[in-house]
Amino acid sequence: MTIAVLGSFSVVAVAAGWTLAQRWVGRMRASARIGLEPHGQARAPAPIVRWLADAGIEGDPGVLFRGWIMALAAGCVVAALVPAGAFVLGIVALGPAVGLVAGRGRADRRRAAQLPSALDAMAASVRGGSALRVALHDAATVGPPLGPELSELARRADAGMGLAEVVGAWTDELDHGAARLAGASIVVAATLGGPGADALESAATSLREQADVEREAAALAVQARLSAAVLTAAPVVFALLLTSVDPTAARFLLTTPVGWICVAGGCALDAAGAAWMARIVRGAR
Fold first, then answer.
1. Neighbours of 21 (CB within 10 A)
2. Cis previous bond, 145, omega within 30
3. I need a labelling partner for 274 at 20 to 30 A (CA). Which of 61, 136, 150, 186 fits?
4. Run of H or E including 55
5. Which of 276, 178, 193 has its CA nearest to residue 232?
6. Quick one: pLDDT at residue 85?
């Protein structure tokens, strides 16, 4: 009987989480506006889309968001039934957030690495006599995240929008140095036609040189990143070891309000320290 009741409660909790996520996404779809969202892709809450895009995570943001809500509902059930379930709930709740923080800027780095090849492909297409809109389609084969964005730029240009306006909106939204340089070269090529291929090739060369400098700086920062990772993981590992060998500590942390406050405070401080160290490492680069 107890198992049946608990099973029914679990099903209800998961279903409630799914329904909540569906309604939330449904309300946000009408108001969310993603400037370079691929044509026909389902809308999702704007902050979720921005964070996933910034971390370079592919997939339908709406599906990922609903899956997280369902996992939270299941984690609440586990936390209510299992003494150590609070850790499961904490991992489900904070794990995606930690992943998004750790992956901040990943899409920009991937896009910057793809830009030189895309500009070279556009230059070759323009030298061959193709219109710049066609060259954008040719360069879209570089793959995500840059490929779908170039396809969207070409689609908007095909729909009658001015290419300079479309590219300007793209660079303003990204607000990234490599994208601004590439956008300026594309506008020059759109103005000059065939001779503008030189501007595309020059921008590709500059971006490659910049990427070489950044890779060298990243290699020099490896030790700092490893130290930051160890310092971030050490409190979590120590807490897990403590609760596994000392039942009294586990009961205090997991079953008392003061223990919950300690766990929440420790997680918050650890996350703040991780963010601070990550910012220092990025600043050094």
1. 21
2. yes
3. 61
4. none
5. 276
6. 63
